[in-house]
Amino acid sequence: MSIALFTAVSGLNNFQGMLDVVADNISNMNTTGFKASRVNFQSLMSETHLPATAPRGDMGGRNPIQTGLGSTIGSIDRVFRQGALEQTGSNTDLAITGDGFFIVGDGSINTYTRNGHFTVDTAGDLVDSQGHYVQGWQAVDGVVDPDGQIGKVNIPLGEQMIAKVTENVKMAGNLDASSGVYSAGPPATGGQYTTEMTVYDDIGGAYKVPVTFTRVTPGAGVAAAWDWTADFGGSTVGSGTVAFDANGLYDPTNSTGTPVTLTPTNSANPFSVDLDFGGMTQFVTNGEYSVLPTSQDGFPAGTLLSFDIDQQGVITGRFTNGQLRAIGQVGMAFFANPKGLQGSDGGRFLESANSGVAQIGVPGSGPRGSLNPGSLEMSNVDLTGEFSKMILAQRAFQANSKVVTTMDEILNEVNNLKR
Q1: Domains of the chain
Q2: How many Cβ atoms from other residues are within 10 Å of residue 332's Cβ?
C-alpha cells in the first residue's frame, strides 16, 4: 500500500516543480530577451511482480505484470524561440533575429545573452544594464579586424579627428558638346565653364580653387578636347587637357594633366592634388554645364559627435567635419546546443560541457543571425499557454493529493482491523 503513497508524493513533487517553472515564466513575461522554460516528465522504474514468459508447449506467452512507481522530472529545457521585436529608437538597443547571442564580460569571464539593452558609460564603453562590457572588436584607423581577439568596445564621444590633406579630387558632370571652340573675342564665343573645388591642407585649412574648362581644337585622332586650368592666388597651379571620344565619353588615353600644387599662406606644408576626370561626359545640352567635384579625400579637424550601429554590428562614428569612420563592431556567438547553456542572473548564460564552445563571429554570418538596431527582443513567454499549464498542474496536484488522502483513510481502516 505504501507504493501508492510513494507514487502520489512523486506526482506532488513533480507538479510543484511544474508550477515553479510556470511561475518563473509568467513573472518574466515582460523581461527583455527572456526565454521561457518547459518541463518534461518521465516515468520512474516499475516493480515487476511477474516477468514475461515465452510461448512453450501448449501454453501461450504471458506479458509481464508490473506496477509503475510514479514519475519524475526528466528535463527542464529553455525554449529558444524567437521573441517579438519592439522598436525603441535608441541607437544602443539591439535585437537579434536568428540564433546568436551577445557576448558580455566583466574582465574575467564572458557570458552570453539575448538582452540587447546597452548603453555607453562615462568612460565611453558599451555596457549592459549591469555594467558588463559588450564584447567585439575595436577599429584601428577606421578598420575593424574581426579575426582578432574580442574585447570591450569603446565609443569615445568627443574624440578629435586630426585634419587630412587633400590628395585626390574626383570630377563628374557634363560639358556641352554643342559649344564651339572658345575664342576670347571680343566678343567671347565658344565653350568655357568654371567650377570650384574646396581642398584642405595638412592642418585643416580650406582653399577654394577655381577650375576652368575651355574648348579647344582637338589633336589628331581625338574627337573632342577641353583644356583645363586651376588657379590659386592669381597664378595657374595646374593644367591639362580632358579628351572625349566620338560617343561623348571620357578618353583617358588622350587626356593629360599635371597635379594641382598649392603653397598655403599659413604654416601648413605645400601639397599636390590629383584630379580625376573619369566621371565627365560631353553630350549636347544646349549651353548647360554640370561639372562639379563629387568627392575629395581631405577634411578639416573634427570631433566625434554621434554614432550609429548597423545590421552587421559595425559602429560608425559621425564627426563634426562630416566624416564617417568605423569605431568598432559588436561580436556575436553561436552554440551547437544552446539548450545546454547554463542560466545565470540578469538573463545571461554560461557555457557548459553540453552547450559546445562559443563560435564567435560577426553578426549576419552563419547561423548567428542579424541585428536590428533601435529594437529590443521581447520575452517569448506565451501567457495563454502558461495559464493552461498552470491549470493542468493545479488539477494534477489536487488529484495526487486526493490519492494521498485516500491512502491515509485506507491505512486508518487497516489500523482499525486490529481492534
Answers
A1: 2-48+66-80+380-416 (no CATH), 85-161+304-377 (no CATH), 168-296 (2.60.98.20)
A2: 31
Any idea which residue has 539548450 for its cell? Answer: 339
Cell of 371: 541585428
pLDDT at 96: 97
Query: What is the C-alpha separation between 62 and 52, in angstroms, rounded?
Result: 5
Q: Longest C-alpha distance within the chain, in Å? A: 141
**What is the value of pTM for the model shown?**
0.80
Contact between 83 and 369 under an 8 Å Cβ cutoff? The reply is no
Q: What is the DSSP letter of 398?
A: H
Write the DSSP string, 156-221: -TTPEEPPB---EEEEEEEEETT----B--SSPBS-EEEEEEEEE-TT--EEEEEEEEEEE---TT
Contact partners, residue 332, CB within 8 Å, separation at least 6: 96, 100, 101, 102, 103, 313, 360, 361, 362, 363, 368, 369
pLDDT of residue 1: 53
Relative to beta strand 168-176, strand 271-283 is: parallel
Q: What is the DSSP string of 317-349?
A: EEETTS-EEEEEEE-EEE-S-GGGPEE-GGGEE
Residue-wise pLDDT for 91-148, tens only, equals: 999 999 999 999 999 888 999 999 999 999 999 999 999 999 999 999 999 999 999 9
C-beta separation of 329 from 315 below 8 A: yes
Asked whether 259 and 169 are in contact (CB, 8 A), the reply is no
Neighbours of 393 (CB within 10 A): 21
pLDDT digits (tens, 9 = 90+) for 16-71: 999 999 999 999 999 999 999 999 999 887 778 888 889 988 888 889 888 777 88
Which of 8-12, 195-199, 274-278 is predicted least confidently?
Answer: 8-12
Q: Determine the Cα–Cα distance for residues 73 and 40; give it in Å rounded to an integer.
A: 6
In this structure, what DSSP letter does residue 367 have? G
DSSP string, 52-119: -B--BTTB--B--EEEE--EEEEEEEE--PPPPEEE---TTBEEEESS-EEEEE-SS-EEEES--BEE
C-alpha cell at 405: 488522502
Matching residue, cell 555596457: 127
Residues linked to residue 59 through DSSP beta bridges, in sequence order: 56
* Residue partners of 345: CB distance under 8 A and separation at least 6: none
How far is C-alpha 254 from the chain's CA centre? 47
